[in-house]
Design goal:
Elements: E1 5-8, E2 19-21, E3 28-30, E4 34-39, E5 45-48, E6 58-61, H1 64-72, H2 75-80, H3 90-111, E7 115-117, H4 119-126, H5 130-133, E8 137-140, H6 146-153, E9 160-163, H7 167-173, E10 181-184, H8 188-200
Parallel strand pairs: 8-9
Antiparallel strand pairs: 1-9, 2-3, 4-5, 4-6, 7-10, 8-10
Helix pairs in contact: 1-3, 3-7, 3-8
């Protein structure tokens, strides 16, 4: 599976959420599919990933191209109804923030005993009862060897499979040099992770590399 991709093996309707309008497309979407921005005290456009910062917010579909378009057409200033300053690296900054949020949540899940890593431990976890897999997430490193990833992914029926982080990124989140396979059990952290990984998909480019198993 390509880097920057998430795949679901679940069925059923998505939970309905409040909608917001993207300032580029004009389409109303669930707020979990968008990024909120506000204007900071010094007139800088600031991403508000948790949608909690004060001030009038404006929303963009969670995709790198949407940010580039908003910058090129000066849509941030139009939405804010005032002159604004926009960083040349805004799209990269949003990606970095989303990556950091995801990896921090994985670290939290590990410390809480809600995550396991490594080929053998993940395989053992996935072979347990189906009820434990529902709502969980399998992270499969984008640069891990394809054969090993396929073996583990075949066991992940009923789970979301996320393959947009490298071995080094996943390893860093769990205190290892590199990690190819990692599972986060269902619960609040998994739900928050899914929200952010789905938004991150619009910022990470597709591509695969082959690496050694660990």
């Amino acid at each position: 599976m390509a880097r920057g991709q998430t795949r679901s093996r679940k069925s059923g309707d998505e939970t309905q959420t409040a909608e917001r309008k993207c300032i580029v497309t004009g389409k109303s979407l669930p707020h979990e599919e968008l990024i909120r921005f506000v204007v900071g005290p010094e007139g800088n456009v600031v991403p508000d990933l948790e949608s909690r910062l004060p001030g009038r917010g404006f929303w963009l579909s969670a995709h790198r191209d949407m940010i580039h378009t908003a910058c090129a057409k000066r849509l941030f200033a139009k939405a804010a109804r005032q002159p604004v300053k926009v960083s040349d690296t805004l799209a990269d900054d949003v990606e970095a923030l989303l990556v950091r949020r995801c990896l921090d949540r994985i670290s939290m899940a590990r410390r809480a005993g809600q995550a396991v890593a490594g080929f053998d431990r993940v395989g053992e976890w996935l072979r347990r009862s189906n009820s434990r897999r529902q709502g969980g997430i399998l992270f499969s490193a984008s640069d891990g060897a394809a054969g090993g990833r396929r073996k583990v992914e075949r066991l992940a029926d009923g789970m979301e499979i996320v393959s947009m982080f490298s071995m080094a990124e996943l390893g860093g989140a769990v205190g290892s040099e590199r990690t190819v396979h990692l599972v986060v059990a269902s619960g609040g952290l998994a739900k928050a992770l899914l929200k952010d990984t789905r938004r991150l998909t619009g910022f990470r480019q597709a591509g695969t590399e082959v690496g050694d198993e660990r």
